[in-house]
Write a structure and sequence with these properties.
It is a single chain. The model has no long low-confidence stretch (mean pLDDT 89). The chain has one domain (3-90): Serum Albumin, Chain A, Domain 1, CATH 1.10.246.140. 84% of the residues lie in helices and 0% in strands. The two termini are 21 Å apart. The chain has 92 residues and is an all-alpha fold. The protein has five helices and no strands. One of its GO terms (biological process) is protein transport. Its main location: nucleus. One of its GO terms (cellular component) is P-body. InterPro entries: TF_ENY2, TF_EnY2_sf. One of its GO terms (molecular function) is transcription coactivator activity.
Length: 92
């Protein structure tokens, strides 16, 4: 099975079990608390102003890469631990 398939299956299980909300809610709150959301919004506005014509897909690709790179390590680790705990419960 490819990694994309595993990701899709895990995401499906998270959503179906309502665990997605239990993980995503605190993640969004933490990212907002540390200013990550505001920084990404600011970056999006600045980058859009620099583009002669705003192309949503191009802007999204740039922001996605920056967003993934800029998530604080502590937030990543905590979120990954929540996902691992969920997976451990699934495969007991």
């Amino acid at each position: 099975m490819a990694a994309d398939s595993h990701y899709s299956q895990i995401l499906r299980r998270l959503v179906e079990s309502d665990e997605w909300e239990a993980i995503f809610g605190p993640l969004a709150a933490k990212l907002n608390e540390v200013g990550w959301v505001d920084e990404l919004k600011h970056t999006a506005k600045e980058r859009a102003r620099e583009m002669p014509t705003v192309h949503f897909q191009t802007l999204l690709a740039e922001l996605e890469a920056k967003g993934q790179e800029s998530v604080p390590a502590a937030v990543k680790q905590e979120t990954m631990q929540l996902i691992r705990t969920f997976l451990d419960k699934q495969f007991e």
